Amino acid sequence: MAYSEKVIEHAENPRNVGTLDKNDPNVGTGLVGAPACGDVMRLQIKVGEDGVIEDAKFKTFGCGSAIASSSLATEWIKGKTIDEAEAIKNVDIVNELNLPPVKIHCSVLAEDAIKSAIADYRKKKEQKNL
Amino acid sequence: MAIRLPVFMDYHSTTPVDPRVLEEMLPYFTEKFGNAASRSHAFGWTAEEAVEYARERIAKLLGAQSEKEIVFTSGSTESTNLAIKGVAEFYRDKGNHIITTVLEHKSVLDTCKRLEKDGFSITYLPVSKEGLVDPDDVRKAITNQTLLVSIMLANNEIGTVQPLEAIGKITRERGVLLHTDAVQGFGKVDFDVQRMNVDLASITAHKLYGPKGVGALYVRRNKPRVRLVAQIDGGGHERGNRSGTLNVPAIVGFGKACDIMATEGKAESSKILTLRERLRLKITSQLNEVYLNGSFEHRLPGNLNLSFNFVEGEGLMMAIKDVAVSSGSACTSASLEPSYVLRALGVGDELAHSSIRFGLGRFTTEEEVDFVANLVVNKVDKLREMSPLWEMHREGIDLKSVAWVAH
Fold it and tell me: How far apart are CA B9 and CA A35, in angstroms?
């Protein structure tokens, strides 16, 4: 199976690889997938007081398409509000990266990772406000 | 010496045709183009003579008693279909039981599955952690209904070489036929149908530097004489076992390929083994959390199947795209299931997803091995730096204790 140029470009030069401090109250962490399924994504966001995502980092165990999907996701959500980021759909990632049908689950995982990181961030905020 | 990229390290999938093989084949496409079944003129006789010479060369490498025991086919999948279905149909009134193993090639497993639908009963023997079949399990599985045992010589993914001689003693003693899918091991490891009491063996030319599209089934003619029901009807070629015009140039190449193996195979295997060990040691001395899949001792010389923990196989293959290899990762297959062979060994799904098969062969060089080793070490390090699992592992988190959200 041949990869699209965009997948190869992201996989070879992944954006925003790294780790944010998961104990920082302004950081939300999403960890999705399972090693037994062959892909695990961890996506982290750092949200400013204005609700804008200031920084995003990821680490992914997975195939080139999974790495590219998470790299693209971090690139897209940086500078967006969390509501805007939450609106990103997996089909947007599929279209941007030209993922073939067998790789659609990679984009689903990336969408889940964004949502999961946002949910974690919101949970932290709620707990702080209690 | 400069290396040509990409480096081919997938010799289990296929091999290039040796130039000496090609040279011998070429006249049979053009001036010696006759149909080997034409009995009435010199074109046919020339082709037939070439086919018979190839038959002798192949029989010799197999250790067969007679060249008449060679039935040409289109390849090993067809050979295996003919062997298993042919025996099952011919001996149907004698029994309905076949014994095989869980890590056979799909051509064996799917043929057996079809026979199950036709009322046959199949026993799939388990294998050890190293991928070895216990001959005692074969003995215990044989019933008075057993017609055939089908166990491969060497596995295509993990390179494990089965104890066929011990198995052959048992099947001979119990009067059960023994078929082996010898594709990967033929010409490369010790194999002799006579000494090992093998009754049927599937082989193919393109795994030993011959052309694609030609294979053979060895069918024992003496003690016991094995009978088959042909699976392809037509002109009654190959003593009625396989109709269809013979692919003369390819058969000529098959014969030459076997002849080269007969004279050079031993030295070549030892050279390839040295290269494989160089590759293995270079990788494992520079990376931790790397696991060898399959038996170290009973192994094809050119096979190195490694799992790189915390790195996904397809991701790694993409990172090392200057090397042609294959992976047991689910992502390389349409089914999204990781390798059933690795699963059969009890390798966890995580490590199955992290496996890469390196296949070395006749034209592999030391420079290529060094290049590949360095590339792999470099890219595994890089991918681990972006692997959340590697980070968790380094923090001392037991990955088995994490409640993963499978999707």
Answer: 27
Question: What residue in B sits closest to A29 (Cα-Cα)?
Answer: B388
Residues B237, B243, B249, CA angle at the centre, nearest 5°? 75
**If you average pLDDT over residues B259-285, what whole number do you get?**
98
Token pair belonging to B204: 């193919």
* Angstrom distance (rounded) from CA A38 to CA B310: 10
CA distance B142 to B159: 26
**Percent of chain B topping pLDDT 70:** 98
B241: helix, coil or strand? Answer: coil
**Longest distance between any two alpha carbons in chain A, whole Å:** 52
Q: How many angstroms separate the CA atoms of B14 and B203, rounded?
A: 13
pLDDT, one tens digit per residue, over B49-87 is 999 999 999 999 999 999 999 999 999 999 999 999 999
| Tokens (6 digits) for B159 | 């390179």
What is the chain B residue with the closest CA to A38? B353
CB B344 within 8 A of CB B155: no
Q: What is the pLDDT of residues B106-151, one digit of tens each?
A: 999 999 999 999 999 999 999 999 999 999 999 999 999 999 999 9
Nearest CA to A67 out of A30, A100, A102, A39 is that of: A39
Pairing verdict, β B146-150 and B97-101: parallel
Question: B350 in contact with A at a CB cutoff of 8 Å?
Answer: yes
* H helix intervals, A1-130: 5-12, 64-77, 82-86, 90-97, 104-129
Contacts with A79 (C-beta within 8 Å, 6 or more apart), sequence order: A52, A53
**Cβ contact, residue pair B311, A14, below 8 Å:** no
Which burial class, exposed, middle or buried, applies to A19 when counting CB atoms under 10 A from its CB (0-12, 13-18, 19+)? middle
Distance CA A55, CA A78 (A): 6
Distance, first Cα to last Cα, chain B: 48
C-alpha distances out from residue B172 to A102, B137, B197, Å: 47, 15, 7
d(CA A75, CA A56) in angstroms, rounded, equals 8
Nearest to B202 by CA among B179, B228, B223: B179
Span between the terminal Cα atoms of chain A, in Å: 52
Is this complex's ipTM strictly greater than 0.90?
yes
> pLDDT (tens digit, 9 = 90+) per residue, A92-116?
999 999 999 989 999 999 999 999 9
Classify B159 as helix, strand or coil.
Answer: coil
- Among the listed residues A8, A12, A34, A37, the single catalytic one is A37
| Cβ contacts from A onto B, under 8 A | 97
Q: DSSP letters of B100-116? A: EETTS-HHHHHHHHHHH
Query: pTM of this prediction?
Result: 0.94
Contact B312, B329 (CB under 8 A): yes
Specify the pLDDT at position B388. 96
